[in-house]
Amino acid sequence: MQPDENETSAETTNEISPTGTPSETSGAPGGRPGLTLVATPIGNLGDLAPRALAVLRAADAVLCEDTRVTAPLLARHGVSVSLLPLHEHNEDAATPRLLARMAAGEHLALVSDAGTPLMSDPGYRLVRAAIAAGHAVSAVPGANAAVMALTLSGLPPHPYLFHGFLPPREAARAAELGRLRAAERAGLSATLIFYEAPHRLAETLAAMARHLGPRPAAVARELTKRFEEVRRGTLEALAAHYAANPARGEIVLVVGPPAAEAEAGAAEAGLDERLRAALAAGESLRDAAALVAAATGLPRKQVYARALALRQEG
């Protein structure tokens, strides 16, 4: 997501300067060999932390998704440093060379176009390789669109599951939503967070309404920018709104967990359906309960009691 203005550092320690006054220093100095992940603004260019600037200035090179995006940000803050592209298409090929530079004593900084590196952005494979090679890996925290949208959504903040982008094609998207729904039926109860492109927003919301069922959601767009907006409602209502009013800008979708009562009702309905099918196929009460318990993971006694109740209901 994209850039703006002000955040603090992660782990800092108070040290006494030569003059006797406390000074803040980061836990991982910029000049130390290794890799530092640096969060950049998601909209407001002023949201670049002082420690982030210090690390970027001290780096031997800054790895970025797109030099055309990162160069203006650094120029605005007077940072002059070598920029090296690192994106999904070259990360595997570039990683050995970057590890060699760290081994030679260089300190590299990694940024994404906007926000916190690795969150739906490249860099994971490099970080994993750097850790495996024994290089120091640290981070300077800052803006993150997913967390900001979650805090503004009005939906339960924990637990939450960050998914990133859903597949753009309808069939693959439906399959992924089906997997999430299956996880919920198996016990997952979390607020879900997605990124989405504006031209797909309405159809994605409609697909969520179909596959996840009725539930509250929020659409956060243009966070920290001039036209920041957070619209809240049901998935169905939000889908209708954005079908009639196409969205623009960077978008985060936050979807609330299913209501406990709805989940209980759906689980019971599914259990009844499975039991009736097993009994209709000629299974005994005990065998039907055993089969359904094995398929659902529910306690056999609970399933048997429900099967008994169904038989008594006729």
Q: Would you summarize the structure shown here?
A:
The chain has eleven helices and twelve strands. The chain is of the alpha/beta class and 314 residues long. The protein has a five-stranded parallel sheet. A five-stranded mixed sheet has the order 8-9-12-10-11, sandwiched between helices.
Q: How many β-strand stretches?
A: 12
Mean pLDDT: 87
Q: Total number of helical segments? A: 11
Secondary structural class: alpha/beta
Radius of gyration: 25 Å
CATH level 1 class label of the largest domain: Alpha Beta
β content, as a range? 15-25%
Largest sheet: 5 strands, parallel
Order of helices and strands: EEEHEHEHEHEHEHEHEEHEHHH
Give the fraction of residues assigned to helices: 40-55%
State the end-to-end CA separation. Answer: 57 Å
Q: Would you tell me which CATH topology of the largest domain applies? A: Methyltransferase, Cobalt-precorrin-4 Transmethylase, Domain 2
Question: In order across it, which strands form the biggest sheet?
Answer: 5-4-6-3-7
The CATH superfamily of the largest domain is known as: Tetrapyrrole methylase, C-terminal domain
Task: Indicate the low-confidence ranges by residue numbers.
Answer: 3-29
How are the SSEs placed, and which strands pair?
Elements: E1 12-16, E2 22-26, E3 34-38, H1 50-58, E4 61-64, H2 67-76, E5 83-85, H3 91-103, E6 107-110, H4 124-132, E7 137-140, H5 145-153, E8 160-165, H6 170-185, E9 191-196, H7 201-212, E10 216-221, E11 229-234, H8 235-244, E12 251-255, H9 260-280, H10 285-296, H11 300-313
Parallel strand pairs: 3-6, 3-7, 4-5, 4-6, 8-9
Antiparallel strand pairs: 1-2, 9-12, 10-11, 10-12
Helix pairs in contact: 3-4, 6-7, 7-8, 9-10, 9-11, 10-11
GO molecular function: rRNA (cytosine-2'-O-)-methyltransferase activity
EC number: 2.1.1.198
Function: Catalyzes the 2'-O-methylation of the ribose of cytidine 1402 (C1402) in 16S rRNA.
